[in-house]
Specification:
The complex is a heterodimer of chains A (591) and B (83). Helices cover 68% and strands 3% of the residues of chain A. Chain A is mainly alpha-helical and 591 residues long. In chain A, helix 5 runs parallel beside helix 11 (251-267) and helix 6 (103-110) runs antiparallel to helix 7. Chain B has a two-stranded antiparallel ribbon. In chain B, helix 1 (2-33) runs antiparallel to helix 3 (48-78). Chain B is mainly α and 83 residues long. Chain B is elongated and about 50 Å long. Chain B has three helices and two strands, in the order H-H-E-E-H. Classes of the chains: A mainly alpha (591), B mainly alpha (83). At the A-B interface, helix 5, helix 10, helix 11 and helix 13 of A face helix 1, strand 2 and helix 3 of B.
Chain lengths: 591, 83
């Protein structure tokens, strides 16, 4: 059976599964819609959180990035896992005991202020939209490569599916589909990794495999990582395992980016809200552990996949004549994610350090003597002839390693599961921010249960359409705004939630000033670099890492202003006292 | 009762600080600040600092959360604030 047929079968089966789960878990109450009724088991919540968290970027792009970055890729591995320790120890149990529906709810109540609630609400919506546009694009890319449909058609199909199960089942529908999606995506990630690890090193466990010796071929008996270091050096790159080599990020920058990603993770509303769905405080602590365990399975495999992919990629394409290049090179060239410019006219592909030409490939539509797509880009003077988009490493990996067609189809289904599960979690945050925090809490306190549900469902519809629009017409800044999502989450939510729990003295004035100071600093710094071409003037810290500084500013301003102004009212201090002790956490309460 | 709750909170904070110190040491310490020194040591085919940054720290994170869960289970019962 062909890859295409297998892919239709896998994608069809998994989509049917998601839709049936959604149908059986449809809801009729706001509590079911916002927090799945508060009765999800810690194990199921752990899986759902893992699927929610691991997006198209984790599944499709991360190993590819690490593959090109080597050691520096650790910023993503550490940054996107370490935040769960902060969540489990500093936030999740207390927010669960507090027991409302959303993050703006906590901020608004703890700081007895609708201004604080509104700032939190705007941040939650901004962060979520930033993220969801990327997911829709991911769905489109998987569809176009594996099902040979147009990217736009792929986005529309993805929108329809997400809308169906998110509006029908709300948080409950999303939670149980995410459990299924976790299973699909983790199998899809692990199976090819095991195959490839066996092939290259003879060790079936990828986490051990990439520290082992190569099993066969010209490098047999040598350690894989040492071989990679050698290959990288030969081709003009810095050593794969070397930290802070020439051209890579400085130690301070790596430190700050890792911190911003960790703290940002702990401050992301779609992650925090998952801990409201478990029955009690014990469940919140435990499900944070399960969540990270399930995430770690993928995150410890990713760096192994990255090194296998780099080894395979260099060996299969470098110094291979184009006419004998394997099929995957030509398949991906069709999608424009690989391009080859035969600079020295020898018909052989040379892969070296440096960009082969400026910018992304733009094709003239003509075909060269060997069948390659001709480029109109201005070529650079270095010897590198190949452009390889980082996003294809995971998707192309099974093809590069010559795995059977069903494995390739499974990877396509896994990529879709990762993108859809994250998209649905984000859409729910957007919908609940507007229907609960804005409409119910700030506009119409008399709204009935069914009115609020209707608003929630309509908001999901509108949010899906906006997300789909950005998926079809990706604004040039999608990649750049990811820095915003984490930077803003780190510099806005995290400090004031932590202080709200651990310091009774922190008051409304402090929190509002702190949030505004943190966000403004981070926002202006990122805009200056990403859009106005400004420099990294603050100690050379890049836009991705500046959230760390914004967070520190937020902490300092909040504490300073709080100490000069009146203490919070007694009932707020009592509330802070009560969330510190687990007993008495009922279901998430309405109010 | 009041005194008991204050003790419970103090104990919770001390668990937290200990575990977060380990969290910082394995990730920021071994994985970033001292990565070059540790890379001189080899763990099989892995330079040790590189291993911490791409594998070891993540394993430790998972363990830390479960340890906190177990410690707090015991503490909740001891001070009778469990659910």
């Amino acid at each position: 059976m062909s890859i295409l047929a297998w892919t239709y079968i896998m994608v069809g089966l998994t989509f049917t599964l998601y839709l049936s789960i959604a149908w059986f878990s449809r809801v009729t109450t706001t509590k079911g819609f916002y927090v799945a009724g508060g009765g999800v088991s810690p194990l199921a919540n752990g899986m759902a959180t893992a699927a929610d968290w691991m997006s198209a970027a984790s599944f499709i792009s991360m190993a590819g990035l690490i593959s090109f970055l080597g050691y520096t890729g650790s910023i993503y591995l550490l940054g996107w896992t370490g935040g769960y320790v902060l969540l489990a120890l500093l936030l999740a149990p207390y927010l669960r005991k507090f027991g409302k529906y959303t993050v703006p709810d906590f901020v608004g109540d703890r700081y007895y202020s609708d201004v604080a609630r509104f700032v939190a609400l705007v941040c939650a919506i901004f962060v979520s939209f930033t993220y969801v546009a990327g997911q829709m694009r991911g769905v489109g890319i998987v569809f176009s490569r594996f099902l040979e449909v147009d990217v736009n058609t792929g986005v529309l199909i993805g929108m329809a599916i997400v809308f169906f199960y998110a509006s029908l089942g709300g948080m409950k529908g999303i939670t149980y589909t995410q459990v299924a999606q976790y299973c699909v995506l983790i199998f899809a990630y692990i199976i090819p990794a095991v195959f490839i690890s066996m092939k290259i090193t003879g060790n079936p466990i990828p986490q051990l495999g990439f520290g082992s010796t190569i099993a066969a071929g010209q490098d047999a008996g040598k350690f894989l990582l040492e071989t990679l270091n050698g290959l990288n050096t030969d081709l003009g790159f810095s050593e794969y395992t070397k930290a802070f080599g020439p051209g890579s990020k400085s130690m301070l920058d790596v430190f700050c980016i890792t911190m911003a990603l960790m703290v940002g993770t702990a401050g992301l509303p779609h992650v925090i809200v998952r801990f409201y769905t478990v029955p009690n405080v014990r469940g919140a602590r435990l499900s944070a552990g399960f969540a990270l365990l399930f995430i770690a399975i993928l995150y410890t495999t990713a760096p192994a996949v990255a090194s296998f992919a780099r080894y395979n990629m260099i060996n299969t394409i470098n110094n291979t004549s184009y006419s004998q290049a394997p099929d995957w090179v030509k398949n991906w060239e069709k999608t424009g994610l690989i391009a080859w410019a035969d600079k020295n006219n020898d018909g052989v592909i040379q892969y070296r350090a440096g960009a082969p030409f400026a910018g992304k490939p733009s094709f003239s539509g003509e075909v060269g003597a060997l069948g390659q797509k001709m480029l109109t880009n201005e070529l650079t003077s270095n010897e590198n002839e190949v452009y390889i988009d980082r996003d294809i490493m995971v998707l192309a990996n099974p093809e590069i390693a010559n795995l059977p067609p069903w494995v390739i189809a499974l990877v396509a289904a896994g990529g879709l599961a990762a993108a859809l599960s994250t998209a649905s979690g984000l859409l729910l945050v957007i919908s609940s921010s507007i229907s609960h925090d804005l409409y119910y809490r700030m506009i119409n306190r008399q709204a009935t249960e069914s009115q609020r549900l209707a608003v929630g469902r309509v908001m999901i519809g509108i949010a899906v359409c906006i997300a789909g629009y950005f998926g079809i017409n990706p604004p040039g800044f999608v990649a750049q705004v990811v820095a915003f999502a984490f930077g803003l989450a780190a510099s806005s939510f995290f400090p004031i939630i932590v202080l709200g729990i651990f310091s009774k003295r922190t008051n409304r004035e402090g929190a509002v000033c702190g949030m505004i100071a943190g966000i403004c600093f981070t926002f202006i710094y990122i805009v200056n670099i990403k859009f106005l071409g400004g420099s990294t003037w603050f100690m050379g810290i890049s836009a991705e890492g500046i959230g760390t500084v914004g967070m520190v500013i937020n902490f300092i301003v909040t504490l300073l202003v709080s100490s000069f102004t009146a203490a919070p009212p007694q009932e707020v201090q009592d509330m802070v006292e009560s969330i510190r002790y687990p007993r008495g956490a009922g279901g998430a309460i309405d109010h | 009762m009041e005194k008991n709750l204050a003790q419970y909170w103090k104990k919770n904070l001390s668990y937290m600080i200990t575990l977060l110190t380990i969290w910082a040491v394995v990730s920021y310490g071994c994985g970033i600040l001292f990565v070059e020194q540790l890379n001189a040591i080899k763990l099989g085919g892995f330079p040790l600092g590189f291993w911490f940054a791409q594998q070891g720290a993540i394993y430790v994170f998972v363990v830390l959360i479960f340890v906190y869960y177990l410690l707090m289970q015991k503490l909740d019962k001891e001070f009778d604030v469990h659910e």
